Amino acid sequence: MPPRRSIIVFACLVLLSTIVLTVHKVGKARPEFLGQLVTSKASNKVQTLQGAKETTSQPCAKDVGWLANLDIQYPIKYAEREIVVRPKLGLGRESLTKVDEPLFPEASEMVATQESRLELRDCKPPITLDVPVFPTSPVNASSMVFGMATTLERLDDSGHHIARWLAHTQAKLMVVVIQPEKGTLATDEQIAIKQGVMRDQGMDVTLVRPLDEGEIYTESYFSLVKVMYTHRTKESSWFVLMDDDTFFPSMQALLAMLDKYDPDLQYWIGAVSEQWWSVGRYGMMAFGGAGIFLSRGLTAVLSKEYETCITEMHKAAGGDERVMRCVYGHTETKLTNEPALHQMDIFGDLSGVYESGRFPLSLHHWKGGDYPVDLMSLVSDVCGDCVLQRWQFGKDTVLTNGFSIAEYPEGEFANGLDFRKAEETWDSHTIEASVNPGTWHSMSPSRPRLALDQQKIQYRLLESTTVDDGVRQTYVHKGKKDGDPATVLVLYWSREDSGAWDKNSTRSS
Asked: Hey, what's the torsion of the CAs at 123, 467, 379, 350, to 10 degrees?
């Protein structure tokens, strides 16, 4: 081989060795980056891979002036994370989805006083979560007519919550305005003003006076059968009696449930009470707070028998009981029980219901309680029917979307904690000589409650609001004992395609 060729070959070998060593060093220097973040040149977007065990963190500055609007005592511990949802075809809503990486940094930032801007030492990149594909504008629910009997004052209290699920869906709402126990009946002008306000919010609502002057609430409730049927359209297939504190998290889910049934047949669809003692007293009855769904075929019969049913009623009978008596007395129809409809006749701490991973078609008794269903459901504008959906992050943290973040510090996961079972945080009322201890028929399978702040540390939703094209959730734990700083955990939700909810919708804060 000539000398010049030997030199050239030697130089090439040295250069090749240098390249190999350099790549090897880079690979060892940044293993947490490779496989964690993928940059798409076409879309110029950064996507966090779900299932990664570690993520690169770096300092960052965050605007937190909005914390001043919350009832929080300083000092506090603070952490936040962005979540990007990715709608995925063919994906179902799982009860619990496991994600390998932790949700927040291990160490929260200590904040001594109210600040408008924080310099955070440990900021993780956004995490991407797959969710089922969902509509980005209200669904067409013109097949449904809803009805309630209430006072104008209580309707004011419920208006925002009703708008969350009813606005722009083309479903009708009939409201029989009754006289309050204390006070006078609303004037025609007041009724017209309230009707106009609700219609301006995108709700097809009609307010009417009771059919008979002086009728009591339960009579007005039963009269909704006739009122709704009288105001039907050619599209009306289902007539729904409800209370003014009934909340439907997803109109899309309601329509999917009703798609199983032929509205021209006689269907009486609802749910019995979660408490067995109530079932023992009332039997197989659709409880009104959960929503009573009457098919077009059955409503036609009940409307025809309306006057007869009234004469047969006992004055003390409740509104939903009157419906039951008329159905059983004049048809062969039996109750079709849909357990995802919830009367919520259980008391005490209802965390076990909300954290069960089971998607509710309806919720009840939210007024006066610590369960802000309108704030809980706000995240649905970003991720559809992900409300109350659960994700497990790392080894000890479970997010129940819109309700809580729970940490299990004493190895409950390793001890075989079964998340298919609802935690029995509620108070049960047993019936003597009954095999059912109280809620077997409604909440099983279930497991014993855990000791708060020992086996389970719970951060409850305090605030939820729309920000830009997403939703911000604030979860708070006030400390294990007096004097401990509160911990504030913040999640920012957005969609991967940056698609926002239809701006013509009232589904906002």
From this structure: 80
